[in-house]
Amino acid sequence: MERPKVEAKVAEKLGTLPKGTVLFVDDFLDYGSPESIKKALLRLKEKGLLVRLAHGIYLYPKIDKEFGTLFPSTEDIAKAIARRDKSRIVPTGIQALNALRLSTQVPMKVVFLTDGAARIVKVGKRTITFKKTSPKNLLPKGPISNLAIQALKTIGQNNVDDDTLKKLQTILEKEKKENILHDAKLAPAWINKILMQAIK
């Protein structure tokens, strides 16, 4: 009797969630054992109520009349995994450049620094890598200044042109001054200089 009951409870919970929510087995452990939840999620996927994004990761899909299932961004999936693991993450590389609109390239392989477990998650053709890092890299407070540090590290000191600097200065105007002051101290000297110029 347990199987239909667990499935019914999971389906009922789904009805209370916003469409587009990324879900895990852990979200339903109040309703049964991990094994019974896994089976219930698979059955709901077979019924078309859920979409399986990766091993143990599901989507309560939002359906658009024109575009069909609307899939979450790589960043949204990474944030959901970080929430589940109660860990912090920071986008790096092209992902950081993209978040600041300094690049239009949509990376298929993204890397996030984390204080959680190192792992690789494959979502369709996309790959999300969580790379264990030292706590210092996760100390920046400002969402924009944090991204700016990672973006500049990706570009490299000798490749930062005036156009990029101008764009960065404009973007950093939206960051709180105290965040920039705090985060600049954690950055390499050449990045510190660029961040400090934004608050002059």
Domain module tally? 3
Q: How many helix segments?
A: 8
State which percent range the strand residues make up.
15-25%
The ordered H/E elements are: HEHEEEEHEHEEEHHHH
The major sheet is characterized as: 4 strands, mixed
Uncertain residue ranges: none
Mean pLDDT, nearest integer? 91
Q: Which structural class do the helices and strands define?
A: alpha+beta
Radius of gyration of CA atoms, rounded to a whole number: 20 Å
General shape:
elongated
- Quantity of strands, as a count: 9
Distance between the first and last residues' Cα: 68 Å
Helix content: 40-55%
Looking across the biggest beta sheet, what order are the strands in?
Answer: 6-7-9-8
What does this structure look like?
A hairpin with a 3-residue loop joins strand 4 (62-64) and strand 5. This protein has helices at residues 2-14, 34-46, 74-85, 93-99, 143-155, 162-172, 177-184, 189-197, and strands at 21-24, 51-54, 57-60, 62-64, 68-70, 89-91, 109-114, 119-123, 126-132. 28% of the residues are buried. It has three domains: 2-64, Arc Repressor Mutant, subunit A, CATH 1.10.10; 73-137, no CATH class; 139-197, no CATH class. The strands form three sheets. Strands 6-7-9-8 form a four-stranded mixed beta sheet. Strands 1-3-2 form a three-stranded antiparallel beta sheet, sandwiched between helices. It has a two-stranded antiparallel sheet with strand order 4-5. The N and C termini lie far apart (68 Å). It is elongated. It has 200 residues and is α+β, with helices and mostly antiparallel strands. Helix 4 packs across helix 5. The model has no long low-confidence stretch (mean pLDDT 91).
